[in-house]
Amino acid sequence: MKPKVAFICVHNSCRSQMAEALGKLLAADVFNSYSAGTETKPQINQDAVRIIKDLYNVDMNKTQKSKLIQDLPEIDIVIKMGCNVVCPFLPSKYEEDWGLEDPTGKSDEEFIKVARTIEERVRDLAKRIKNKDIYLKETRD
């Protein structure tokens, strides 16, 4: 069974959404991607949507929406996007913080930089899961 990875931040409108989209695009064979926050926004950050569409030809408006952490299934791996305030807590078997700057309200260059960093880290995460560098205790149903 593929592990479930949740990308979380407070609003679930920008970085975590980009990570969910890139996880689905680049690592669907290794893990299932989710994203969520402790608050939702009526829509995903439209600059993030545009940049992900330009760079990866994925339309997040069609496939994703802002979600709350309590709407997620049981998660194996939690990736915190980097919250300057308190990051939401979600129980999991493994957790790491990517400490990414929120590009909201900044230039396209900033969004592209964040998207490329997320792409790199998603690929790295997939590799580490594949190589079992991230230890997930098997649970029996």
Task: Identify the strand order in the major beta sheet.
Answer: 2-1-3-4
Biggest pleated sheet: 4 strands, parallel
CATH superfamily: Response regulator
Gyration radius over CA: 14 Å
Specify the number of helices. 4
Alpha-carbon distance between the two ends:
11 Å
The number of distinct structural domains comes to 1
Q: What's the CATH architecture?
A: 3-Layer(aba) Sandwich
User: Helix- and strand-based class?
Assistant: alpha/beta
User: Mean pLDDT, rounded to whole units?
Assistant: 92
Helix content: 25-40%
H/E series: EHEHHEEH
How does this structure look, described?
With about 140 residues, the chain is α/β, with parallel strands linked by helices. It has one domain (about 5-130): 3-Layer(aba) Sandwich (Rossmann fold), CATH 3.40.50.2300. The protein has four helices and four strands. A four-stranded parallel sheet has the order 2-1-3-4, with helices on one face. The termini are close together.
